[in-house]
Design goal:
The protein is of the alpha+beta class. It has one domain. The chain is 12% helix and 26% strand. The chain has 3 helices and 10 strands. The model has no long low-confidence stretch (mean pLDDT 93).
């Protein structure tokens, strides 16, 4: 599930959104209300239940040798074991939004400061495990995310963590 040219995507477990209105997320560091979306390279970051904590890493042009990824692997996602059933059963939807309404936000998102109507109805994303497999993304199940997170963040890999506050406590 990726956007077509001229589009960005918003992922949600709600299939009935008819208009996206800017808001300040409870966990936001900024106070500006936004509508959030992602472009094609960052879509896989959101192939998860919304509240699922995940650690993600990928090779970059400046990544050195790393034993965190297997031979030939370029991207890794990790979740905790107890989230697997939710990953298997969550019904996730993608909304296509006009990219021209958005501006880049950091290296991971696009934002809009005015209401945005989707370009069409919500589209079922499908089997989240299958999406990872089809995209060639290594998906790891761990008892606890923190040891991997600590290794990723001190490596030369690109990385992102989402909803880490929902992860089990550090061992």
């Amino acid at each position: 599930m990726r956007p077509e040219p001229g589009q960005v995507l918003h992922f949600s477990e709600d299939p009935a959104i008819t208009r996206f209105v800017p808001h300040v997320a409870a966990t936001a560091r900024q106070r500006t209300p936004y509508v959030w979306a992602v472009d094609a390279p960052r879509c896989p970051d959101y192939w998860f239940p919304r509240e699922c904590p995940r650690a993600m890493a990928w090779t970059t042009p400046t990544s050195g040798g790393s034993d965190l990824l297997g031979p030939g692997e370029t991207r890794l996602h990790a979740i905790e074991h107890h989230w697997l059933e939710r990953l298997r059963t969550t019904r996730l939807y993608a909304y296509r939004l006009p990219a021209a309404a958005f501006t880049p936000f950091g290296d991971h998102a696009h934002v809009c400061t005015h209401p945005v109507d989707p370009l069409g109805p919500a589209e079922p994303v499908g089997d989240l495990l299958a999406l990872h497999e089809e995209a060639g993304i290594q998906l790891r199940l761990l008892a606890n995310l923190w040891p991997l997170w600590d290794a990723i963040t001190t490596s030369t890999l690109g990385y992102s963590g989402i909803r880490l506050r929902n992860a089990r406590p550090r061992p």
